[in-house]
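Researcher: I'd like a candidate sequence for this fold, 281 residues long. If you have to choose between options at a position, lean toward the conservative one.
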């Protein structure tokens, strides 16, 4: 199985704010790597045998690649918007496929059952019709017109509201979520999931947020998002098979799974197969 398509992608490998000259040892797709700051304070990533790897610093994170990325790191225009608060949520290690972690982030139907009384609640369990497309020009998966009732849509929300979402997959192990911003209804809050594939069935998940919220303490924003993701972790670590099946017949989708179906089709089209299961076993 060739992995070249995913080797040539950018991946998060650490928070820039937490780096020092001593660096940290981690891994990328099974290869040990070192992430540190050089003598000038710039991020530096080295792979096996001291090989210097490509580096970008964006969205609070250091990004690198074991290969030669064919394009720049995907843009998030809101990251340059004045007045937003940028939240480095930290990292959560999950024993699952990096592709499974992204797919779970795209799943709306689990809100009432996994994030009960926060992102969802019974009897509001029905997923309304929404639109999914693979945008050819950007080469990204998008889901739009997603609406869901939420008792507490964000830390800044007071009381339940029907929240609108847009989901975007710009890279195989990254997703960007745009959702209703309670303090500014004309804007979107941005919540991202940047996933670092340590192995095919192990990943570090680095959530990051760009919010309009001048009220909530930074610690509370971080704790709220970590609480949400830790609820997801227990589900992810118990999914069988551990790798993400790309054969449409291996798991039975429902109408609520349109984004997942498009994501799997897009992965298969590009041969993004690290962390995937291609045939039934």
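Model: Candidate sequence:
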């Amino acid at each position: 199985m060739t992995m070249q398509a995913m080797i040539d992608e950018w991946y998060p490998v650490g928070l820039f704010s937490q780096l020092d000259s001593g660096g940290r040892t981690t891994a990328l797709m099974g290869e040990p790597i070192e992430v540190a700051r050089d003598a000038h304070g710039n991020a530096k990533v080295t792979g096996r045998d001291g090989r210097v790897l490509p580096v970008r610093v964006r969205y609070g994170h250091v990004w690198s690649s074991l290969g030669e990325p064919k394009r720049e790191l995907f843009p998030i225009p809101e990251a340059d918007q004045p007045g937003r608060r940028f939240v480095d949520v930290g990292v959560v290690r999950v024993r699952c496929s990096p592709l499974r972690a992204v797919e779970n982030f795209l799943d709306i139907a689990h809100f009432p059952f996994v994030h009960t009384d926060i992102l969802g609640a019974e009897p509001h369990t029905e997923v309304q019709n929404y639109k999914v497309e693979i945008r050819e020009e950007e080469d990204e998966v998008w889901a739009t017109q997603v609406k869901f009732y939420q008792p507490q849509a964000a830390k800044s929300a007071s009381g339940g509201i029907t929240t609108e979402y847009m989901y975007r997959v710009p890279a195989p192990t990254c997703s960007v979520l745009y959702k209703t911003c309670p303090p500014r209804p004309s804007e979107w809050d941005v919540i991202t999931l940047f996933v670092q594939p340590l192995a095919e069935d192990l990943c570090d998940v680095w959530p990051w947020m760009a919010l309009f919220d001048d009220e909530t303490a930074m610690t509370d924003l971080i704790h709220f998002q970590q609480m949400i993701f830790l609820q997801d972790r227990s589900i992810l670590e118990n999914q069988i098979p551990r790798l993400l099946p790309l054969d449409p017949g291996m798991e039975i989708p429902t109408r609520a799974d349109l984004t997942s179906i498009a994501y799997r089709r897009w992965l298969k089209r590009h041969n993004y197969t690290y962390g995937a299961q291609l045939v039934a076993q």
